[in-house]
Specification:
alpha/beta; Metallo-beta-lactamase, Chain A; 3-stranded antiparallel β-sheet
Amino acid sequence: MPGTRFEIGGLSFEAIKAVHGDGDAVCLRFEAPGVESLGYTSDTEAYIGLGEALEGCRLLVLGTMWPRGNPLKGHLCTDDALQLIKVAKPRCAVTTHFGIKLLNVGPEKEAAWLEKETGIPVISAFDGLTLNLGDKITVKGSRKVDEPRIIDA
């Protein structure tokens, strides 16, 4: 339920309202020692106040289902992700939860556009992606040939 807060082993969680066909859907904000806050949108459409609820997160994971110019009720498109990033001002964002239209356009292309438009590093999720949240955020694929991206966030 939105507004619910709880703590487990030093991690605190806050449920944030989601607007989706599933009434049990929530977005989340996590607080962890040494990591600061992380935000996760889950399945939701953009609404007034969502960006503010996720403001200042070090890492923001956005369930971005559709590409630019393709709004879909109950879900985010890249245009919505742009507005959320601009308001929330995370130090890094990750897009995930891609629908077929976004996959056909290219999630990496949309993430690069978001990064160009906001000046905030944006990563397009992929199978095997790992994010290490230390002093810097290290983004790495699962293959030995995948060069890590180090984000000073």
